[in-house]
Design goal:
Distance between the termini of chain A: 65 Å
Oligomer: homodimer
Largest sheet of chain A: none
Order of helices and strands of chain A: HHHHHHHHH
DNA sequence: TGACTTCTTGAACGCTCTGTCAAGAAGTTG
DNA sequence: CAACTTCTTGACAGAGCGTTCAAGAAGTCA
């Protein structure tokens, strides 16, 4: 049974990564298939043949976005002391350097954007988003638990609550930043939050 | 100069208020004019004649949403002690009772949703959103300043920074809640934040 | 009543959208 | 080379979109 045929002319992974940028900056509804065809230099038929329909394509893009983000998160959280790393995580809500091609307005967090646009009426999107949030709080709570035991972070609140708070904070910051970032005000708010975590 | 003519058969204000609900739950792009015609029981032509095009209609709805929210906010902030009021503001990010018809999934904050969908590429939406955020931080900072002077709230951070933090928090909470609210986790995170403000 | 103004109705227009498909191109395999 | 498989291309269909508009209805005013 022959499994060969004409080879694909574009790189599937790279194309998905570029689709992340597009979907990330414009959202699901405002990105048309024609936009994708133009930006990715791949014809409609090939796009449909490779990635399925637009919704599936988008959800795959979100999953890739999150995977990249999670790798950065894990790396950042595995440092001592922890608080500077948390500050970094909060300070750059749009710092996925691997996916950012060049400068431009911040697009916020793609998971957050997906939440606003597709959740809760799209069940699959809701699942992706929920799992991402859960991963974030689990990873951050683990790190905070360790930091509480070393005495770096205050233990007057459970690490799970602190992690949940940081999720709200980073999502809020990432969203509000779309409307224009007052760097000084944002930094001063972040420092206030980080200080509150200090033992 | 006669200014009369056939009187409008529907209540403009009530119709706008009902449009808020629709736009709020589905967003701008996912709410079609036909959806509005069906839900509001007003024909297309009348809608266009009264509210202008869809975008103008939506922006008016956002402005109404915010006006109602701000009234609630001002009332809540004008209480002593302040911290329980702040807790209330954070606890119910979707508590605009006047506009909520009945139960249903939370839609988050309509200003936040607008930010995710239309900002920054829509200049007018960006202006509405920016002004709303600014009003929120101004009002909350004023209240915090008073509460700092009475000794209720800690003064180890400027009230502006605390207010900015609360904006991020309420927006993050409101957004993440769309994906399903774990009430216990959310409340514990909010209490952690409120405790951090206590003097 | 007749002139005037505004609102209502729903058909229709032009456009864009997602998704499909047939024909051809480009490989592999025997 | 011939058979087979997969990918590419771009036209196409079908649906839905926002918006306009002409004709009629319902008021006011002189």
């Amino acid at each position: 049974m022959a499994r060969t045929g004409r080879p694909r002319e574009f790189d599937k992974d790279k194309t998905l990564a570029r689709a992340v940028e597009l979907f990330w900056s414009r959202g699901y509804g405002a990105t048309s298939v024609q936009d994708l065809v133009d930006a990715l230099a791949v014809e409609r038929g090939s796009l449909y043949g490779t990635f399925g329909d637009k919704r599936r394509f988008y959800l795959d893009a979100v999953r890739l976005y999150w995977d990249v983000y999670e790798r950065h998160l894990v790396t950042a959280l595995d440092t001592t002391p922890l608080l500077p790393a948390l500050r970094e995580i909060l300070t750059h809500p749009a710092r996925l350097d691997e996916l950012i091609s060049d400068v431009g307005a911040p697009h916020g967090c793609m998971v957050g954007n997906t939440t606003a646009e597709l959740v809760p009426h799209d069940a699959e999107a809701t699942e992706v988003v929920t799992r991402s949030y859960r991963r974030f709080t689990d990873l951050v709570a683990d790190a905070l638990r360790r930091a509480q035991s070393t005495g770096e972070v205050t233990d007057n609140a459970p690490p799970e609550a602190q992690a949940q708070l940081l999720l709200y904070l980073v999502q809020g910051l990432s969203l509000v930043s779309r409307a224009g970032l007052d760097r000084a005000a944002a930094l001063s708010a972040i420092d206030t939050a980080i200080d509150a975590l200090r033992a």
